[in-house]
Amino acid sequence: MRSARALLLAAACTGLTGVGCQRGDPGKAAGPAASSGPAVGAAGVLGTIQGVVRVPGSLAPPQGGQHEVPTGGTQEFVFGEQGGGVAFVVVADGQSRVVHRGQVGQAYQEVGDVVLSRDGRRHAYAARVGGTWRMVVDGKEGVPCDRVGEPVFSQEGAHLAYPAKRGGRWHLIVDEQVGEGTRTRILGPEFSGDSSSIAFLEAAEEGDTAERGRLVVSDLALKARTVAGEGIASFRLDAARTTAAAVSVDGEQARVLALALARPGEVRRSPVYQGADGLALGADGASLAYLAHRDGRDLVVLDGREQQLPPGADVLGGLVIRPDRKAVAALVGIGEAVSLQEFFVGGRRPEQAYREAAEPVYAASGSLLAYAASRAAQWFLVVNGQEGPPFDRIVGPRFSPDGKKLVYRARQEGRRFVVVADLNGRTIRQHPAYDQVFPVQFAPDGKSVAYGVKDGQVLAWKVEPL
Predict the structure, then answer these.
(1) What is the pLDDT of residues 177-234, one digit of tens each?
(2) Entry pTM
(3) What is the Cβ-side half-sphere exposure of residue 124, based on CA atoms within 13 angstroms?
(4) Would you say 148 and 160 are in contact if contact means Cβ atoms under 8 Å apart?
(5) Dist. CA 394–CA 462, nearest whole Å
(6) Residue 26 CB contacts under 8 Å (≥ 6 apart), including other chains
(7) Is the CA virtual torsion 427, 438, 81, 67 positive or negative?
């Protein structure tokens, strides 16, 4: 299905060093993912953000909000979403150590990706010990396993889950509770927003390139299990993590499934299509959009309504549901050009075509649309058709909570910085430049932004005014 295949570019369109959504790029399927929602909660976050200035440990000064990074052998850096900590891996003499909040962990032969809780205070990673792997959670080693999957924390950080293979069978491990063994792989555990349940895939046999299995919703004790659907390769949660959506495939037929995690036995099923992909959920989980294919037609579907894509069109990047749930925006490619289009509304013509474009986003009112676009070698912000100043690259445009400003990250001549723009795309403020700038969060007061930076050998958490 042409448009569905093109949609899989979404995961590749968000990196500051990436190329955006460009006609002709090869697609790559992504695993289970949750919709991105508000990054900073309302309670206690300012204290969490500022608390990073007093992280103990030999690699962090007692005050100043900075970490000194050792030279050589340092791998990727990970900041807590709310700024409460940062972690990185240092490799020396064939051994790997994780540094979290200034504390240097034990040496291992090899470690996997480090995952932090949203508040940055907890961390987990897989480590190889001899011929086995163990999940290391807050410095404590778990049970020996043949293989372990990527860990995931619950929203408040109290719980951790990961898949593990032991004795030829896969298990889901939640905290210290080990689930029933299965011969099939377990993929993508995701906690509900209230941490009362967890969803995951019991996938097809290893070696089966389809990698489709059962979508299971369970309590955290892994005792009360509900199989919500079969023939599923991935699933998606809304921002509040109350609703799951997935595509169920049976031979040549596909249906889109949606269910509330609190009531996993009540599954809503779409009509039969010959293919479906590109699921998008509204922020509250009440709306569902996707791409589908039937009888030679490529369709955009929103809450059961269908609209045909223009002839020869591909959807590049994800669908975005308008906050009032009456329309869907998408970047649509025809030939060598990409333009932003809205579906299910009349009177709005496609915007100007560009060579590349990425990351469309609505203001909370739904009246404004912004995205990143490229002409020749330069990128700029586009807000309702108005272009901002050019940079080498921009990513992550987001409206402020009051809808009066936008922020995005930009790169120019090898340096990265945060830009605050007005609703015409014009720059209001350009924050200081660094070697690296990590995703931007809004503070609860709506007047500040917070983000991690790396400059030379220093890591720091910055809080800057809008």
Answers:
(1) 998 888 888 988 999 999 999 999 998 665 544 578 899 999 999 999 999 999 998 8
(2) 0.82
(3) 22
(4) no
(5) 19
(6) none
(7) negative
